[in-house]
Design goal:
With about 200 residues, chain A is an all-alpha fold. Helix content of chain A is about 70%, strand content about 0%. In chain A, helix 1 crosses helix 2 (about 30-35), helix 1 packs across helix 4 (about 50-75) and helix 5 (about 80-95) packs across helix 9 (about 185-195). The first copy, chain A, binds a DNA duplex (18 and 18 nucleotides) through helix 3.
DNA sequence: GTCTATATGCTGATAGAC
DNA sequence: GTCTATCAGCATATAGAC
């Protein structure tokens, strides 16, 4: 595979992410993607196997970025409350670095398919994605519980608190698109206050 | 229009909302809806004019419910901070009462169309919806600003704080679906603490 | 690697029998 | 008010010329 074709693939993924973000996977056609890239839809298939493969190539890497990130934080020997603050900062950074891919995370995973005959190693894309998402959520909840146990956070309803924090972070891409000039450090400080401030002891 | 047909319409709207929630408007076919209701797709058109009309009949009423609700709160002569608490309680109640319709609010409005020739009074469905949403958001921000001016909240970054609060409330339907047995009063108390606690003076 | 042409199936919606 | 039959258009994807 040449460098040129790798670049072409990257361009197709980037344009697809933008289109999926705007209209969703189902409402975006292969022709829409081909138009955005500047070729006929048939030519796209010299670079990708299927529309489904594009979705997999966008969602699974971003899910792995999240998991790698939270794993690294968790391996540190910080107090749990500082781990939570670092996780929030990491999610902000990941969102700013990959806004289009991140935008697919809340809702587009439902279009991942398990039974794709073409891709031998992608037969369980849906299952794999769910597993990564659940791993992230469960580790987040575990660290949150530790922050309570260590006396940094009040004994709140954990599931409500974690849902509240994560649903804001998952939607950050949409707020950030309208406020791209904000200083990242300010965004971090404000969000940490918004999301954790009411729960501190 | 008979009572029976009104009930049939309500059933079609309810089943459509469930399907739109699960897969989105674009990925839900008229045949899917007909199957769920228990008739052939052609028969559906004795009850509805178009698929687009179903989306309008789901999204515009729920948007009006939100606006009516926040207007009523705003007309009271409460301190702004208490208005915010009441708005949160109202959003929780609206979500619990209309989970499927509420689930369409974050993302499905992009499929509303402005140029539907069939429906004389619905030519601007998309514009109308955006207007209702913007009205709600701007009034929410105004009340939030008042709560700061009245000394109840810290002088935070208003847009970040309002985005954070509203994105959690808009996603509540999805958390609630997995925790339907929770006591509503507990949910209200926890969410008010999560969403406003860190911002109080 | 891009194109034209095409296969096959699904889409929203309509016509007309009953 | 429900059905069968059908339409025109668009979907994903492939074949094969260049």
């Amino acid at each position: 595979m040449t460098l040129k074709s790798k670049n072409r693939q990257r361009e197709i993924l980037a344009k697809s992410a933008r289109l999926f973000r705007k209209k969703g996977y189902a409402a975006t056609s292969i022709r829409d993607i081909a138009d955005a890239v500047g070729m006929k839809s048939a030519s796209l298939y010299n670079h990708i196997k299927s529309k489904q493969e594009i979705l997999r190539a966008l969602l699974l890497p971003i899910a792995k970025i999240y998991v790698t990130s939270i794993n690294q934080v968790n391996e540190n020997s910080l107090p749990a409350i500082e781990k939570l603050e670092q996780i929030i900062r990491d999610q902000i950074r990941i969102t700013i670095e990959n806004p289009d891919a991140v935008s697919l995370v809340p809702d587009q995973w439902v279009f991942l398919e398990n039974d794709d005959k073409d891709a031998e190693d992608a037969k369980t894309a849906y299952n794999d994605y769910i597993e990564l998402r659940n791993y992230y959520e469960q580790l987040f909840i575990k660290i949150f519980q530790e922050a309570i146990d260590e006396g940094a956070l009040k004994s709140v309803h954990i599931e409500i608190a974690c849902f509240s924090i994560l649903s804001t972070l998952r939607r950050l891409y949409s707020w950030y698109a309208r406020h791209r000039t904000i200083d990242q450090a300010v965004l971090e400080k404000e969000l940490i206050m918004n999301l954790l401030g009411g729960l501190r002891k």
